[in-house]
Amino acid sequence: MENKNSQPKTVIVGSGVSGLSAALHFAESGREVMLVDKAAGSGGILSMLDRQFFNDHCGMCRILPMIKREGSQDFCLKRGVFHENIEFFPYTEIASVDGAPGDMTVGFKTVETNEQFEKKGVSVVILAGGSDLFDPSETDFYGMSHMPNVVTAVSFERMISGNVLERPSDGKEPKKIAWIQCVGSRNVTAGSPYCSSACCMFAVKEAVLAKEKTDSRADAAIFYMDMRTFGRDFQRYRDDAEDKKGVRFIRCRIHSIEPADQEGDLDIFYIDNHGEKKKETFSLVVLSTGKNDLNETDNYNRLASADGVYLLESAKEFRDISETVKGAQSAVCEVAEILDCMTERTNETRQQKDESLYFQKPRLLVLMLKKGVLNENADCDKIGSKIENLFQNLETVVVDKLDSAFLEDIKDSVLEKKINRLL
Questions:
Q1: What average pLDDT does this structure show over 239-244?
Q2: Helices 199-213 and 153-160 sit at what angle, rounded to 10 degrees?
Q3: How far apart are alpha carbons 227 and 235 in whole angstroms?
Q4: Are 315 and 155 in contact (CB under 8 A)?
Q5: Mean pLDDT estimate for the chain
């Protein structure tokens, strides 16, 4: 085996949402990170998406640390990961883990050449690989392999990221677009009885973007069994899509998709809520694919049995961005505490730890805004007292208006009481 010289203290496998989030948090806390991925670049599925619900923004910056993010935000994460404490290895897979936490030897191999190398002196290994998406073309789900205007949701993301929306067969703007949910999920015969949970909002977002891209010229319809809108503002986003954007929601089971009389168009056959057979013609059909259960779980479980190897939740199940980021941040905090126990720190490093917001106990200042937030008849003092009784190191202040002048007034008090969180 070739022995590379650099010896990062933390190895993170997978550079999707969870891997990038964990790597940036470790890097911002001053730890060296080796980030590996079998793909050519970082970002995972997120790098293929145009915008994310619920605010239809890019969303990559949601991966950044909440505090001390200066070293992470100088570059757009869609262009790659750039940080002085992160060394990125594309086309690389983890092969073996030996040794004890704090002094582990990790073996790797490159995907393209099968070249093998190892890293020594590794403190901890974090397995942060995500889930692959179900590929409907392999089993010809809904004519995916022979009808060009049947595409996956990720393929539609690439289509909608351009200046104009064109369907694959003839380059025309689609007049009617259908989304079919639960493709590769909730299907016992396909060996995937589970719900992938993130596909519903994925489709709603794409339908909204299609409406915006075509100035509402395109009709958008979502065929679904059950709509899962469990996150913050998800149901409001779904309701706005229907009430304000004109997206149609059709609860049914799809029977089949066949070529329509008009070349390139597609007929969808389904059973409605009343048990009646229906047919509707569309210009383009988007398959909302769930997770592929044939991922690296078995290999990860084998590696995770070793001491010093941690398996993130994203490697076990399909999750949306916000859940994945929270899970990664929680794991980083847990692992960081373990690393601190293993590491002999110098006085200077201890001082840096004491001064860093990462390691301080929260001291929270809660600002309660009277106008526009609290009811005019609310007993602010009573509310503040109840909040303070619930938590330690917490203070409440009632304000009429939050502006720069007020923040300047409380600046000295914040510094004196060492407030490090503001709500």
A1: 94
A2: 30
A3: 9
A4: no
A5: 80
Q: At 86, which amino acid appears? A: I
Distance CA 375, CA 372 (A): 8
Give residue-wise pLDDT tens across range 109-136.
998 889 999 999 899 999 988 777 888 8
Bridging pattern class, strands 277-282 and 394-399: unpaired
Name the token pair of 380. 């602010």
CA 168 to chain centroid, in Å, comes to: 28
Residue 145 C-beta-side C-alpha neighbours within 13 Å: 7
Characterize 279-311 residue by residue with b for buried, 16 or more Cβ atoms within 10 angstroms of its Cβ, and e for exposed: ebebbbbbbbbbbbbebbbeebeebbeeebbbb
How many whole angstroms separate alpha carbon 254 and alpha carbon 141? 11
From residue 151, how far is each of 36, 214, 264, 289 by CA, in Å? 30, 18, 13, 10
User: At 388, is the secondary structure helix, strand, or coil?
Assistant: helix
Residue among 119, 98, 93, 124 at smallest CA distance from 7 = 119
Tokens of 195: 């719900």
Count other Cβ atoms within 10 Å, centred on residue 379.
11
Can you read off the two tokens belonging to residue 210? Answer: 């299609």
Alpha carbons 123 and 343: distance in angstroms, whole number = 9
Query: Given the structure tokens 């550079």, which residue do they identify?
Result: 15
Dig out the tokens for 349 from the structure. 């490093």
Contacts of 417 (CB under 8 A, 6+ apart): 363, 365, 395
d(CA 175, CA 285): 11
Location of structure tokens 């969870």: 18
Cα gap 33→123, rounded to integer Å = 10
